[in-house]
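The instructor's notes for this session suggest beginning with a concrete chain rather than abstract definitions. Hand out the sequence below and ask the class to guess, before any prediction is shown, which regions might be ordered.
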Amino acid sequence: MSQLVPFLTKDPLPPSKNKRSPIRWFVTALTLIALVAAGFLINDFVRGIGQEQQSTVVAGQPVLIVVNSGDSLGTLAVSLVEAGVVTSTDAFLAAAELDERATRIGPGVYSLTTGMDAAAVIDAMLDPSTRAAPLVLPEGLRMDETVRITADGTGLSQADLDAALADPVGLDLPEWADGHPEGLLFPASYEIIPGRTADEVLAAMVRRFDLAAEEVLLEKRAKKLGYSPEEVLIVASLVQAEASPADFRKVARVVYNRLALGMKLQFDSTVNYALKTDVLMLSDDMLNTDSPYNTYVIDGLPPTPINSPGQEALEAALNPANGDWLYFVTVDPETLTTKFTADYDKFLAWKKKFQENYAESTASDAP
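After discussion, reveal the predicted structure:
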């Protein structure tokens, strides 16, 4: 204990030997600088959060909100704040939490206004009148028809769309397509996004085709059939043009049977494609049209698809029905009743029946 006595005295402690040490001053200065910097960083962080979640806007200004496929409500909330529709992401997400209908807000382009109440935004986005009508491309459109409908629906010029198709480097076509966009502008419903270029609009159609091709395993199954993906796509386009869905697989079988025997396909749809017509009864002059698409004249398949087939026609071309059929006739153009046979005489009899039915239907339609 005797060694502790000097430290227990009531007298003032002797001065520290390190009071004026440069190292001590340096450490103290660094600490102060670090505290000041941390204060600035915390202030900026808090201000950043406030700016992300809240903004001040002028109310009543029209805006368009784009909701893409796969967007979450959180992503939508940020878009709404950035456009000034709502002032707080938290407010919209809280309203969405209270209104389970918010989960039904789908992809599309919505016409809203700035400065809306969060709950009113949900009501508005579920109102069909606020959503822009989508671009709808039905199955079986020729490329010129697709261009016309797309131009009408998007406001893009047909010239710009034609130019993009003539030089499709920006469309990301499959390698096996060999630069041919025919058949790849997939029939589906597309959201019209303002400001998109012709390349971007058409590329979206090609991407949708890619999804369908992946779903039906186009490349793998085409190889198993002994055909290229493009050849199967051509068959699918013929199937789409020639029959109703109930007969797709039978028509596909007729195509493959004729190709196997070296017979000309002799499909009216290919002549109509060559002439850009839609005629049920072709004249002799039409049947003799000099075109690489006229399968009454050429051997084998036409050089490209003649339309954009849907997924059901693709599946039929990959999975044709079993049968020895070489001929088919839609004997009733109104009900689309189609008969298949391998017998040429039966085919001729059914063809005559079709001509009679067609004559009757056109006579009854005459004024």
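Then share the key points. The first helix runs from residue 22 to 53. Confidence is low (pLDDT under 50) at residues 1-21, 25-29, 36-55.
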